[in-house]
Specification:
Blueprint lengths: L6 E5 L2 H4 L40 H15 L3 E5 L2 H4 L10 H16 L3 E7 L5 H7 L6 H16 L6 E5 L9 H5 L8 H28 L4 E8 L2 E3 L4 H23 L6 H4 L3 H4 L4 H6 L6 E6 L3 E3 L6 E2 L8 E2 L15 H15 L3 E5 L9 E2 L5 E2 L3 H20 L3 E7 L19 E3 L11 E3 L1 H11 L11
Parallel strand pairs: 1-2, 1-14, 2-3, 3-4, 4-5, 5-7, 6-8, 7-11, 11-14
Antiparallel strand pairs: 9-10, 12-13, 15-16
The chain binds 6-O-phosphono-beta-D-galactopyranose (BGP).
């Protein structure tokens, strides 16, 4: 049903699962001062209410977790390297060997189970010191520090890791400046927008140079960009609403244009007046940008409905734009519109625009689960709602494949429960595996297979064939 060799698996990020925030020589990262994700300001230092400090203790429990992933048949496991484990402040000349060893062990464990690692170099967590001293990616110097880190891990894990992503959801830098790019106090003025787009340019330059490095270190390496994608729908057929859609699309496409085509699109100055004339963009940068990615990876959670009427817009969780209420779609408990068909649309759109292989590296339903006693007295969760969400999305992805879109694989987000990025809660669960940890930090951290665990195992085992007549 799915192409032979389709990469089925799951995805996590270091900052949301590893914990051990001050072990193994790790320095503080921006996540260690974001106890409430995007919904509240940063703290001065690590605080007890920050669930990410312990995460789900993946740092100590990863062998057990990888064994569970292997039991589901994962062919790929997406995780990230915590930059601050390798360069604790970001400024060091030499890497922290203990941090490097941790990921050696992790990737070796993947190999033991025949699971291919897919590694994000920067998933919402630069070293805090680099953020505070350099204002993160607002500074050109950060390119140099990032490349030192990237080169170190590309060389170290050469032969162990073949699939790499540079920046997680690179386009969210425009609205999550601190979490994504370590930039402090960014508001909504034109000046702030300039700073964020300038930062995006530095990130893109670093990303393109990473592509070059990765290919020169090992020609087998495949490097992708990673973009938060959502199809945009006009709330009405009014030309003003359609224009609002066009503008929102340009804001996201800017990132794929630069990563995939290696140049700025004509409309960049519409996004920020005079940007190309006033920004710090050198001739060398423009040459570097020509090192384009091998594939496009994306997260997909929801579509976004836009109206030119500000009254009809409203905040839509973590979406890159505010969304108007789409009367045709149900929403998750966190108000994220549920739109499986939107995945087919966005996959077709990206393939039409770029003709590059696509990789769905995040998709899933954040929901409240209740643990109950299952057969033989073992706790489990009857998460039919999650199965339904994933089944619908995977089937739409399959339709996109039938449409002719080239898709390399699918990694379900938060394949094991972890701390949410936007709200920093444990109770917003995505996993096939339940982790006994609560929003107040209590819990044994024990792992339990949910109903969806067995369902996904069947999906992988049959390479998706069971989805048409799958019994749960
Ligand atoms: C993406 C992030 C992930 C992840 C996911 C779900 O934007 O790349 O890190 O967390 O969203 O979001 P949340 O955890 O806020 O539900």
């Amino acid at each position: 049903m799915f192409p032979k060799g389709f990469l089925w698996g799951g995805a996590v990020a270091a900052n949301q699962c590893e914990g051990a925030y001050n072990e193994g020589g790790k320095g503080l990262s921006v996540q260690d001062v974001l106890p409430h994700g995007l919904v509240a300001p940063r703290s001065d230092g690590p605080t007890d209410d920050n669930l990410k400090l312990c995460g789900i203790d993946f740092y100590h429990r990863f062998p057990e977790d990888l064994a569970l992933f292997a039991e589901m048949g994962f062919r790929v496991f997406r995780t990230s390297i915590a930059w601050s484990r390798i360069f604790p402040t970001g400024f060091e000349e030499e890497p922290n060997e203990e941090g490097l060893l941790f990921y050696d062990k992790l990737f070796d464990e993947c190999k033991k189970h025949g699971i291919e690692p897919l590694v994000t170099l920067s998933h919402y967590e630069m070293p805090l010191m680099l953020a505070e001293k350099n204002n993160g990616w607002a500074s050109r110097d950060t390119i140099r520090f990032f490349l030192r880190y990237a080169e170190t891990v590309l060389k170290r894990y050469s032969g162990k890791v073949k699939y790499w992503l540079t920046f997680n959801e690179i386009n969210t830098v425009l609205f999550a400046g601190f979490m994504n790019a370590g930039i402090s106090s960014c508001g909504n003025t034109d000046k702030d927008r300039f700073v964020l787009l300038q930062a995006a340019h530095y990130m893109q330059t670093a990303s393109a140079e990473t592509v070059r490095l990765a290919h020169s270190i090992d020609p087998e390496n495949k490097v992708g960009c990673m973009v938060a994608e959502a199809p945009y729908y006009p709330l009405t057929p009014s030309p003003a609403d359609v224009l609002a859609v066009m503008k929102a699309e340009q804001e996201t496409d800017l990132f794929t244009e630069v990563s995939v085509r290696g140049r700025y699109p004509y409309y960049v100055n519409q996004l920020c007046s005079g940007f190309l004339q006033n920004a710090d963009i050198t001739h060398d940068d423009l040459e570097t940008l020509k090192n384009t990615v091998d594939f496009i990876s994306l997260s997909y959670y929801m579509s976004t409905c836009l109206s030119s009427d500000e009254q009809k817009q409203r905040a839509a969780g973590m979406g890159p734009n505010n969304s108007a209420k789409n009367p045709f779609l149900a929403e998750s408990a966190w108000g994220w519109p549920i739109d499986a068909g939107g995945l087919r649309i966005i996959l077709n759109r990206l393939y039409l625009l770029y003709g590059k292989p696509l990789f769905v590296v995040e998709n899933g339903l954040g929901a409240r689960d209740s643990l109950q006693i299952g057969k033989e007295g073992i706790p489990t969760v009857d998460d039919d709602y999650r199965i339904q969400y994933l089944r619908d999305h995977i089937l739409e992805m399959h339709k996109a494949i039938e449409d002719g879109v080239e898709i390399m694989g699918y990694t379900a987000w938060g394949c094991i429960d972890l701390v949410s990025a936007s709200t920093a809660q444990m109770s917003k669960r995505y996993g096939f595996i339940y982790v006994d940890r609560n929003d107040d930090g209590s819990g044994s951290m024990a792992r339990y297979r949910k109903k969806s665990f067995y369902w996904y195992r069947n999906v992988i085992k049959s390479n998706g064939a069971c989805l048409l007549d799958c019994s749960d």
